[in-house]
């Protein structure tokens, strides 16, 4: 993961906002998370990801996709679906998923 936010892309594009509270059981999570990042990077139309974790345990991951087809490919990937099932069974106390079409986007970077 980068320590910089994903750049602003030319709209329209899609975002998947995944917010989580994890359980105390995290065996296998780091390895599975790394594998999911490897897989999603192979999807044509995947643009990047931002992630943040609060001290209280709220995790927020935002995935950026050029079009609905790229997002569907990610949603229906067999390994991803297996990881989702394991997440519900072991790693997540709760989660929400929001999918949105971005209609406006801009960014700012301070010059050093």
UniProtKB/TrEMBL annotation:
This is Antibiotic biosynthesis monooxygenase. InterPro entries: ABM_dom, Dimeric_a/b-barrel, Jasmonate_Hydroxylase-like. Keywords: Monooxygenase, Oxidoreductase. GO terms for molecular function: monooxygenase activity. It comes from the Bacteria. Pfam families: ABM. Residues 12-85 form the ABM domain.
